[in-house]
């Protein structure tokens, strides 16, 4: 979806305080092809529920690093079944066992960390986006998660020219808890991202 910086800024002002379902409906209506990405981290169920309420067939891209906790995998399977998610699974080209044998999980200051992040997260994500070629990308980015995300808004343009839509951008954990409770949705907090090390570090997909 081709929008100028000024148009995005104007829309962001309009969308502040607007219900997520209205933002999602607008984006799907004006875009040609939409996808939603997920890793089933805490509160991801909110964006999955909200988007599939508007379009139940939207492709749900899951880039599974292979390092998720058992709780996350069980949570994912529950949501896939419960919400009827149209899951498109993307995994690294190397198995976790292979990587554990030759590299393990490098620390952030290890020169191999960049290669590790490329293998488990960036390459599968690029492959997914190249195959689906969306012009609208729904995410659950929220203000306050990282310094970089604080510079974004409900609408932002990815470096590849895809309109990134984060309907819950201005929502707090308390507001999301109320959303989940109101819709009877489960949450799961035992999530592990092997590329981040620090909780407030950007994962690499949104920079």
UniProtKB/TrEMBL annotation:
GO cellular component: cytoplasm
Domain of life: Bacteria
Stored Gene3D superfamilies: HUPs
Biochemical pathway: Sulfur metabolism; hydrogen sulfide biosynthesis; sulfite from sulfate
Residues in Phosphoadenosine phosphosulphate reductase domain copies: 35-187
Any one GO molecular function term: phosphoadenylyl-sulfate reductase (thioredoxin) activity
Single GO BP term: sulfate assimilation, phosphoadenylyl sulfate reduction by phosphoadenylyl-sulfate reductase (thioredoxin)
Pfam families: PAPS_reduct (PF01507)
InterPro entries with a match to the protein in the record: PAPS_reduct_dom, Rossmann-like_a/b/a_fold
Similarity remark: Belongs to the PAPS reductase family. CysH subfamily.
The protein's name in its UniProt record: Phosphoadenylylsulfate reductase
Taxonomic source organism: Flagellimonas aequoris
């Amino acid at each position: 979806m081709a929008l100028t910086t000024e148009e995005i800024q104007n829309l962001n002002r309009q969308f502040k305080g607007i219900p997520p379902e209205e933002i999602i409906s607008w984006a799907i209506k004006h875009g040609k092809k939409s996808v939603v990405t997920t890793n089933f981290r805490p509160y991801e169920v909110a964006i999955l529920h909200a988007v599939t309420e508007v379009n139940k067939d939207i492709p749900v891209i899951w880039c599974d690093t292979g390092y998720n906790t058992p709780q996350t995998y069980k949570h994912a399977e529950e949501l896939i079944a419960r919400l009827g998610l149209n899951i498109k699974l993307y995994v690294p080209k190397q198995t976790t066992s292979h990587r554990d044998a030759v590299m393990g999980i490098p620390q952030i200051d290890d020169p191999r960390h960049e290669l590790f992040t490329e293998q488990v997260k960036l390459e599968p994500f690029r492959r997914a986006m190249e195959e689906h070629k969306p012009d609208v990308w729904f995410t659950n980015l929220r203000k306050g998660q990282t310094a970089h995300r604080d510079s974004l808004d409900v609408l932002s343009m990815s470096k590849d020219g895809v309109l990134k839509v984060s309907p819950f951008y201005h929502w707090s954990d308390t507001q999301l808890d109320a959303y989940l409770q109101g819709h009877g949705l489960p949450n799961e907090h035992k999530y592990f991202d092997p590329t981040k090390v620090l909780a407030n570090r950007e994962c690499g997909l949104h920079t």
